[in-house]
Design a protein that fits this description.
Order of helices and strands: HEHHEHEHEEHEHEHEHEHEHHHHHHH
Helix content: 40-55%
Number of domains: 2
Radius of gyration: 24 Å
Number of helices: 17
Number of strands: 10
CATH topology of the largest domain: D-Maltodextrin-Binding Protein, domain 2
Structural class: alpha/beta
Largest sheet: 5 strands, mixed
CATH class of the largest domain: Alpha Beta
CATH superfamily of the largest domain: Periplasmic binding protein-like II
Shape: globular
CATH architecture of the largest domain: 3-Layer(aba) Sandwich
Length: about 325
């Protein structure tokens, strides 16, 4: 049997319909879900974590998910457009370019190489030049293709030392590096924080004998890179991503007292002393970019890192792997 709707029911339905229409017409746009791939979850990437925790990505209408991907999967994910962006050294873009893929670094992140060469305590202090000291030594380092490995091979090339002939490399994990030095299988280790400070505290190696952050100068160590198609097809979204990262860099520089608390949320199981050591060294060595801009000289050094040892088989120019248009547009608005 049909029942005639009451006036109150009709009024309620009209009100609900108007509210629903209004939500589609004037409500906030849905956030864009973006996947940011990273090779490891390390303290040197902190400005991006700062931006995420402080809501800078949300301010740009971005719902960001940061996901760790081992080996070269983080680069492949962007090439195949399964991820929107990745954190990594710009030389990954160059290797991709040689293979026909178009990736661009759109914001700097880590502007200096936060990598250190450590020596066993019984071998320090170093009393000769670095080349003489390193000759004949066994060195623990990250696996081939990882940035610390590439940087070590570049340094050895500049010192006229050949892996396998003048020095022996043990290419392994972070734990493997410390184990090799501790056991005496290796005399030197190439590492970063907090592993550096942990080893000093444990007493099996001394402070860095070579600080690459200071010795190399500016490099394109870690940047935010996207597919070139994203710049062409969705520049507004890329610009929002870059703006959030740049705000994260700025906040990191201006609020050093907050960094430990932010880092604790990212690494809840890490000892506070280890986190503090990593942050203190990062601040002291000025590893984070201050502006998001990648200078041409920085790419020249990073290019040499992979070209001199023969890892990159052909030259790749700055403009083929780096696009600073968004950084240049945004920078005046952040001052």
């Amino acid at each position: 049997m049909y029942t005639k709707p009451t006036r109150s029911y009709i009024t309620a339905m009209i009100a609900a319909g108007l509210a629903l229409a209004a939500s589609f017409q004037s409500g906030p746009a849905s956030a864009r879900k973006l996947l940011l791939a990273e090779p490891v979850h390390v303290v040197s990437f902190l400005p991006v974590y700062v931006a995420n925790q402080k809501g800078f990505f949300k301010d740009e209408g971005i719902e960001l998910t940061i996901q760790g991907m081992s080996a070269g999967a983080f680069v492949t994910a962007v090439i195949t457009k399964q991820a929107f962006a990745f954190l990594g050294s710009v030389d990954h873009n160059a290797f991709a370019k040689v293979k026909g893929a178009e990736l661009r670094a759109v914001s700097n992140l880590v502007a200096r190489s936060a990598i250190y060469i450590m020596a066993r305590t019984d071998l320090t202090p170093v009393k000769t030049d670095l080349a003489t000291f390193m000759r004949g030594k066994t060195i623990g380092v990250a696996t081939f293709g990882r940035t610390p490995n590439s940087v070590l091979r570049w340094l050895l090339s500049t010192l006229k030392l050949k892996p396998g002939k003048d020095v022996t490399l043990i290419e392994t994990s972070s734990a493997g590096i410390t184990a090799a030095v501790r056991s005496g299988r290796a005399q030197l280790g190439v590492s970063n924080e907090p592993i550096v400070s942990k080893g000093i505290k444990a007493g099996f190696w001394a402070g860095p004998i070579y600080n690459l952050a200071k010795e190399m100068g500016p490099v394109a160590d870690t940047a935010v890179s996207v597919h070139a198609d994203s710049i062409k097809n969705d520049p507004k979204l890329v610009k929002g991503l870059v703006r959030a990262v740049m705000r994260g860099l700025k906040y990191t520089q201006e609020h050093p007292d907050e960094l430990l608390g932010i880092a604790k949320k990212e690494y809840p199981t890490m000892a506070e002393a280890d986190l503090r050591a990593a942050l203190d060294r990062s601040v002291a060595d000025q590893v984070w970019s201050k502006s998001g801009f990648i200078p041409r000289a920085a790419w020249k050094t990073s290019h040499d890192v992979v070209r001199l040892p023969g890892l990159l088989k052909q030259d790749v120019s700055y403009d083929q792997v780096i696009d600073m248009r968004f950084v240049n547009e945004i920078q005046p608005t952040l001052k």
